[in-house]
UniProtKB/TrEMBL annotation:
InterPro entries: Sugar_Epim/Isomerase (IPR050417), Xyl_isomerase-like_sf (IPR036237), Xyl_isomerase-like_TIM-brl (IPR013022). PANTHER family: HYDROXYPYRUVATE ISOMERASE-RELATED, ISOMERASE. It comes from Chelonoidis abingdonii (Abingdon island giant tortoise). The gene is HYI. It holds the Pfam family AP_endonuc_2. One of its GO terms (biological process) is glyoxylate metabolic process. GO terms for molecular function: hydroxypyruvate isomerase activity. Residues 2-188 form the Xylose isomerase-like TIM barrel domain. Keywords: Isomerase. Gene3D superfamilies: Divalent-metal-dependent TIM barrel enzymes. This is Hydroxypyruvate isomerase (putative).
Amino acid sequence: MWGLGAVPGRQAAFREGLALAVKYAKTLGCPRIHLMAGRVPVGTERAAMALEMEATFIENLRYAADILAQEDMTGLLEPMNSRITDPRYFLTTPHQGKGTLPHSDYPELQLWFLQDIFHCQIMDGNLTRNLEMYFPLIGHIQVGQVPGRHEPNSPGEVNFPYLFQLLESLGYEGYVGCEYTPQGERGWSTGTQLSAHLPKTSHQPFWVWLQPFKGNRNNCASAACLSPGTPNSTG
């Protein structure tokens, strides 16, 4: 469930999975597919596998980009934290991901970051500068409070009203996926509650898409495909 993009020797399985994901995405009318990097193989060390896994990932991304371009789709790469979520996940920071994206050699490739604020805060913090630095490479934003991965308005480290204002000032016009473990009625259970925390502007800078995360990535839409769907609220 963590993907195979960077796992050496699993290129054929990655391509089979991509073909199936494209089939599902076309049926759903979904223009974006999350290309998951996968985990450092059990019994090996991250440092020893880093170069081989990076080369495998770039190889698979180039293949995926060609396939997705034919379908007018976009591939998304999500750095995930290795401190809480999965210590063996290969792609852990946007800094690492920037070196993996083959834009310099293939500028036409539609490969972008899926920037999850939860993971970014845990691994690096410095959210303002990271969003500003990597904004040209960001294709989707996800949010969840730190450290509990609950609703963005729950107690925690991240000031989401400020970050939403920052995204607006940067010109973000995409979706904000709310990927978190719900706490019940206290959280952002409705679009009305959520919209109270969004920037008050005369236009609509981005949609907010409620996407609760219930602890099982097999039930999480972003584990395979990201579909615009019908937004629950606007800002």
